[in-house]
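Our consortium's second objective concerns turning raw sequence data into structural hypotheses that experimental partners can test. To show how far this objective has progressed, the report includes one record in full. It was chosen at random from the queue rather than selected for favorable results. The single chain below, 260 residues long, was entered without modification.
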Amino acid sequence: MKWTVEQIREICENASEIIMSYYKTDLKISSKEDDTPVTVADKASDKLIRAALKLLEDIPILSEETLDTKERLKASRIWLVDPLDGTKDFIGKTDEFAINIALIENRRPVFGAIYIPVKKEFYYAFKGQGAFMHKDGTTTGIHVSERIEDLRLLKSRFYKSGRHEAIEIKYGHLIEAVHAAGSCYKGCLIAKGEGECYFRYGLTSEWDTAPMDLIVHEAGGIVRQMDGTLFEYNREDTINRIGFYVVNNKKNILDAQERL
């Protein structure tokens, strides 16, 4: 790779400046075909990121906010982008939205980056090289916790599931606390040892999971679809249809798979 992680961080910081220029303002919100919200901030961030990534490595880009031409399916390497992960968190002013960038090679992420604009935290990983967080000019290695009890269970603010509530009840004796957190930030919290479990039932998309997938794995954790298989990326169908879990230890999968 001729580009550096510092160049990716700079792209994220520049996109973040655009996003933050719209934050706490009266946003014009529209809906996409799947009824999910989109704002001018999503689109402006997308435009900057795609242009910058093309200059680093001119390969196909699959982005949430760009029409998918399917030409990418012929490529072994693609960029995978969510220019504003957690639009509902952005609109709701939770401070926990993110920028997601991943490099996919032969269906799996080999580089992943997550930037949290409000917190100015940059998480990243290269395959086989560990996971890291950069903040306030300092880069530190991160690792999942070793807890198999007194678990900190993470859940989404805007997505509700009776199956998730059932796990809270059934495994209450193992759970110390339940915290709501935004977007892929839940994966970052697990990767740096500030949570142990996150179970997601329902639909997500490739760009929601790819960078988190690699960062958590490189931090020593586990990310799997609910049937126990690894995610594959750069698929024709970009929707993740069977849910997934993110845990620090295989003992903390609980009975997620039984609840498909």
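The partners drew two points from this record. Residues 16 and 121 are 11 Å apart (CA to CA). The mean pLDDT is 93. Both points have been shared with the crystallography group to help prioritize constructs.
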